[in-house]
Amino acid sequence: MTDKHLPEDTSRGEETTLAQRDRAGLPVARRELAKLDPAALEHADKILIEGLEVFANHGVYPAENELGQKFVVSATLYTSLAHAGTADDLGASINYGEVCHTIDAYLRAHTFKLIEAAAEATAERLLADYPALIAVRLRIAKPWAPIGLPLSSVAVEIERTR
What we know:
Mean pLDDT: 84
Radius of gyration: 19 Å
Oligomer: single chain
Shape: elongated
Low-confidence stretches: 1-21, 29-33
Distance between the termini: 31 Å
Largest sheet: 4 strands, antiparallel
Helix content: 25-40%
Number of strands: 4
Strand content: 15-25%
């Protein structure tokens, strides 16, 4: 069997110029993805999910874990949408309905003390489950946070790249 030489494989000491960028300007080779500058995401295509309500059991206090509460999740999915847009093919995109169900199921199945940990683990899960996802920005808001003062919500927002 012959050795295959992939464009991102530089293990043989060769630098390659085969890795290119697609029409959206996003990197094609995995090695280039590892060096993706977060500022480059400003020009990336995005799928936006806003205000997904999830009832789950996260919090520092025992009552929060026993009774549960509402969390509001917003996500920005960074990907290339050029092919999906020209082909009009869902298979060439990321199914945002599936992503919503993934977020909902993940947050319901796991319990975290901090919404920071919930956001981190959910972002990791999305990057693992959706190979076309280049990066994800997650905002998890906790409108019923037990603060003891009037507020509309407390939230964390993170951005993670491959």
